[in-house]
Amino acid sequence: MEEARPAIAPGSGPAALPRAPLAAPRPALPARLQRGWQQALRGAGARGEVVRVGSVLWPCLQDTPPRRYDRIDPAGTQTYATTHRRMLARGVWLAPSYYEVAFVGTAHDEAAVDSAAAALAAALAGD
Q: Bigger pLDDT: 2 or 92?
């Protein structure tokens, strides 16, 4: 019987690939996206607020952000599903579930953040 061999030879996997330098962190971008999404919610007359911790954001679509999973208003899931589809149509990929979060990473810049904010405003308006 032939001895099993790894599909990728040691030293040739992802660790051996050249790595591109990461973009410099932009700590102001998550707050910029939070403000943009918050303005989109207010502009559409939608209830909720954008909760942010560091670079992680959650568009909470209920009056008061819950502090426990079982306090999330199920009505927000339907609003999120519609908004999610509309955001995808505009090229903005959000987490597929209302119970997940978004984040701003090193690949994002001011234009991407502003585009995501404008897309939410249009999605909430039904455009």
A: 92
Overall average pLDDT of the 46-70 stretch:
93
End-to-end CA distance of the chain: 63
* Amino acid at position 32, single letter: R
**Burial (0-12, 13-18, 19+ Cβ within 10 Å), 114:** middle
Q: What domain count does the chain have?
A: 1
Q: How far apart are the C-alpha atoms of 121 and 127, rounded to whole Å? A: 9
Return the structure tokens found at 26: 């932009």
CATH of the domain at 112: 3.90.1150.10
Token pair belonging to 17: 């690939």
The pTM (predicted TM-score) of the whole model is 0.78
